[in-house]
Design brief:
Length: about 220
């Protein structure tokens, strides 16, 4: 029960830490690969990234499918978006068309909490459509993220010590009870021995009286 409570407190602290850390975290695109162009043969696609309510960001160099495009994160159109708080955004990759409506490679709830890897990477992948790697180092709860392991180890140690202490106490009590019982037994034995000696003394006394002829019987004769 105290362990469960502990985890809850840790979780709350962790969540608080996240909401503190994620104050306008920038998201950059590290790499992208599209698996289809959504275009008629011959024409190049115009692929853009968009989060609802924000500007469309056209990926200028992306021309071919089945090719991985890698970026430095400092390109003129970067960063892709920002997370002012821990709230998710509705974002997606689209192919722009002039005549028909835009095609969707993938659209999803993009959340800062998805950046759980220590290197700040998050891979968004839709089968046969798109595979994109994002970076948001500010989204990752870095410094305290590394701590939980040693902390739980300490917790384990604590448990260990508690068990050792408990066993020590129990052993002490048993030893004390054992000693008390032994003392009692010794006292009883001693009393019995004393009693026996006393009785023996009495009998011996009778014998002496008999010998001297001054016993109760002898006296009346
Ligand atoms: C997506 O891209 C990442 C990074 O380049 C790569 O490690 C991963 O294998 C790719 N996944 C798929 C399904 O292509």
């Amino acid at each position: 029960m105290p362990r469960g409570l502990n985890s809850w407190v840790s979780l709350l602290l962790f969540l608080c830490y996240i909401c503190e850390v994620v104050s306008t975290a920038t998201v950059t695109l590290k790499s992208i690969e599209i698996f289809t162009t959504h275009e008629f043969i011959g024409s190049d696609p115009t692929v853009y990234f968009n989060c609802k309510g924000e500007e469309k960001i056209i990926l200028p160099d992306l021309r071919k499918a089945q090719v991985e495009y890698a970026y430095k994160g400092q390109e003129s159109w970067q960063p892709l978006t920002e997370f002012p708080n821990k709230k998710c955004k509705r974002c997606g990759f689209y192919a722009k068309h002039t005549i028909k409506s835009d095609d969707v490679f993938g659209e999803w709830e993009f959340c800062p909490s998805e950046f759980t890897r220590s290197d700040g990477k998050y891979i968004y992948s839709v089968d046969k459509e798109v595979n994109a790697t994002f970076i948001c180092e500010e989204c990752v709860p870095h410094p305290q993220k590394a701590d939980p392991a040693p902390k739980s180890e300490n917790e384990g140690n604590g448990m260990h010590w508690a068990i050792v202490a408990l066993i020590s106490i129990i052993v002490s009590i048993l030893v004390f009870v054992g000693l008390a019982a032994a003392y009692k037994y010794w006292q009883k034995k001693k009393r019995q021995k004393d009693q026996a000696r006393f009785l023996k003394l009495f009998e011996d006394g009778d014998d002496i009286e008999d010998e001297l002829g001054i016993g109760p019987l002898g006296g009346s004769v």
